[in-house]
Every structure is written in structure tokens, then in C-alpha cells.
């Protein structure tokens, strides 16, 4: 009974403390407080699919680098860092697209497109998130810190490439795959050459799902002059996606030999191949809603591969 009262009092104290902090923040920073819902939407915290697409390959690289469960502090650093950098990427992406998103059905209600917040606010939030992520990187090692600057450059460059090239998805692939490289250096202190095989694999997979994503907006993008691989590949889009999916599976399978991964890992790749087949079925008629469903299905691909990677490393 006494323990129950203690937990009840502790809960009440924490709730009162949070309410007090909220009221104090609202009093001293009224505009920022009023814009918090817009910042939440700007960073896509209401749509976590991007977090997982970035997180799954980072986690399987971390597990493979460790040969099992990684150092706990590194696991926390890479999970939180992934969330922060994905949010920062959304900020700079919407800043770059602020004059275009209003003309695209799917993005017309984004905070910058509706002028609910300013471009200056988006850049400020992006800077803050990048600084927080960099603070986390400082708790790793020198090589990982050096590599973080390359990842930052790629993340900030990608949104602006859509103005100049149809190959913007390649820049996203390079950026989204960088976390896996950093996972290896953070866990082992070095960068084995075969880690680049996993980097290449994830690069291919990122181009796959971002092309599917671009297929959703293809008609609107053609009207406003935004470029993408979906436009470049045109009627060959499903074929090219299929080739990239195959290249991803082959590269991941080749990595198994070099990192001592066995049957459970390969079974995960088999299930991923089945999911890729389902995605091809969804995009057969190129309906925007079905293309978006194919894009979302990549969450399952990443989850399956990560799960069976962990199982393979756990079972001798």
C-alpha cells in the first residue's frame, strides 16, 4: 500500500513539474510554443516511416560490426542520432521545396507550403537538430566524427539536387546509407572494406523506395519542373526498380560470406525478395496510391532483414 502511494505521489509530482515547465515555456517563448505543432509536422514526427527506413540498415550494420549485440551506448547514440538527422533532413528538404510543395497534392499542406512557419525557422530548427546529433557523435571516436561531416554534407545537399538532375535519388541513397558506415567505425574503430558492400546494398535499396515514392508525385513534378528517377526511368521504372532490388539482394547475400552470416540471415533475404515481388505487383499499373503502398512496404523489408540478422548472430 505504501509503495502504491509513493508511485502515485511521484507521478503527480512529475505531471505538475511538466505542466509548470510547459507554462513557463509558453510564457517566455510564446511564438515558439504556438508553432510547436508545425515543427512536429515539419520534422515528420507524425510520419515515422522515414525514421525506420534510415534506422533498419544502420542497426543491422551495427549488429554485424559487433558480431552480436553492440555496445549499449552506441545503440542509444545511433537510434537517437538517426531520429535527429532524419528530422533535420525533413527541415532542409521542405525549405528547398517551399515554393514547389504548394503545387503538389500530397505536399500542399506542409507547414512551409502554407506559410504556417518561415524559412528562417526551418533553417534554425535544422541547425539545432544537426548540432544535437553532432554532440552525440562526439561520444564515439575520431574516425566516426570525421565521417559525420560527410554524412552531414550529403544530407544537406540532397534536397537541392532535384532542381538540377534526375538522379537526386542517388544522392539520397548516398546520404541514407552513411549511417551504416559510421556504425562500423563507431563499433570497431576501423572501416573494413566489405562494409562498403553493405553501403552499396543499402544505396540500391534507397534508390528503389525513393523512386517508388517519386512515382506518386510524377505527374505533379512534371508540371512544376521537379526532377526524379521516376521521371528519368519513365516506362522502364518497374524494370529498373526490379534490377536494383536484385542488386540489393545479391550484395547483401555476398556480405553474408565475409561477415560469417548464415542460414537465418539468408532466410531474411528470401522474405525480403518475396516482399519485393509484392511491391512489383502493387506498382504494376503505376497508380499513385499503390506506388505509395509499395514505398511503405519497405518498412517490412528492413524489419525482416534486421530481425533475421539478429537471430543469425544470436544462434551459433
- Sequence of secondary-structure elements: HHHHHHHHHHHHHH
Helix percent reads over 70%
CATH architecture descriptor text = Orthogonal Bundle
Q: How far from one another are the termini? A: 47 Å
Number of helices: 14
- Kindly name the structural category: mainly alpha
Question: What is the top-level CATH class?
Answer: Mainly Alpha
Mean of pLDDT: 91
Topology record:
Blueprint: H1 2-28, H2 30-42, H3 49-66, H4 72-96, H5 119-137, H6 142-161, H7 168-176, H8 178-188, H9 195-216, H10 218-224, H11 229-233, H12 237-259, H13 263-282, H14 288-314
Question: Which labels suit this protein?
Answer:
316 residues, mainly alpha, Tetracycline Repressor, domain 2, 0% strand, globular
Kindly summarize this structure in a few lines.
This protein is mainly alpha-helical and 316 residues long.
Description:
This protein is mainly α and 316 residues long. The protein has a single domain (43-314), classed as Orthogonal Bundle (Tetracycline Repressor, domain 2), CATH 1.10.357.140. Helices cover 78% and strands 0% of the residues. It has 14 helices and no strands. It has helices spanning 2-28, 30-42, 49-66, 72-96, 119-137, 142-161, 168-176, 178-188, 195-216, 218-224, 229-233, 237-259, 263-282, 288-314. The protein starts with a helix and ends with a helix. The model has no long low-confidence stretch (mean pLDDT 91).
Amino acid at each position: 500500500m505504501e509503495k502504491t502511494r509513493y508511485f502515485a505521489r511521484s507521478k503527480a509530482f512529475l505531471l505538475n513539474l511538466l505542466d509548470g515547465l510547459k507554462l513557463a515555456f509558453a510564457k517566455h517563448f510564446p511564438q515558439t510554443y504556438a508553432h510547436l505543432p508545425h515543427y512536429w509536422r515539419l520534422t515528420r514526427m507524425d510520419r515515422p516511416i522515414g525514421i525506420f527506413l534510415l534506422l533498419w540498415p544502420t542497426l543491422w550494420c551495427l549488429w554485424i560490426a559487433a558480431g552480436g549485440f553492440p555496445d549499449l551506448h552506441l545503440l542509444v547514440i545511433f537510434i537517437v542520432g538517426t531520429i535527429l538527422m532524419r528530422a533535420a533532413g525533413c527541415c532542409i528538404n521542405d525549405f528547398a521545396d517551399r515554393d514547389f510543395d504548394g503545387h503538389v497534392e500530397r505536399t500542399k499542406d506542409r507547414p512551409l507550403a502554407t506559410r504556417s512557419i518561415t524559412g528562417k525557422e526551418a533553417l534554425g530548427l535544422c541547425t539545432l537538430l544537426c548540432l544535437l546529433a553532432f554532440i552525440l557523435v562526439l561520444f564515439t571516436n575520431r574516425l566516426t566524427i570525421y565521417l559525420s561531416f560527410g554524412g552531414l554534407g550529403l544530407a544537406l545537399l540532397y534536397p537541392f539536387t532535384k532542381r538540377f538532375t534526375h538522379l537526386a535519388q542517388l544522392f539520397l541513397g548516398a546520404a541514407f546509407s552513411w549511417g551504416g558506415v559510421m556504425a562500423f567505425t563507431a563499433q570497431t574503430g576501423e572501416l573494413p572494406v566489405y562494409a562498403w558492400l553493405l553501403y552499396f546494398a543499402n544505396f540500391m535499396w534507397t534508390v528503389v523506395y525513393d523512386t517508388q515514392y517519386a512515382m506518386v508525385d510524377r505527374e505533379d513534378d512534371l508540371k512544376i519542373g521537379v526532377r526524379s528517377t521516376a521521371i528519368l526511368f519513365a516506362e522502364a521504372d518497374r524494370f529498373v526498380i526490379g534490377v536494383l532490388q536484385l542488386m540489393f539482394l545479391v550484395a547483401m547475400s555476398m556480405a553474408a560470406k565475409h561477415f560469417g552470416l548464415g542460414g537465418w540471415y539468408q532466410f531474411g533475404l528470401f522474405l525480403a525478395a518475396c516482399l519485393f515481388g509484392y511491391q512489383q505487383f502493387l506498382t504494376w499499373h503505376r497508380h499513385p496510391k499503390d506506388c505509395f503502398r509499395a514505398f511503405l512496404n519497405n518498412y517490412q523489408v528492413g524489419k525482416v532483414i534486421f530481425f533475421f540478422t539478429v537471430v543469425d548472430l544470436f544462434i551459433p
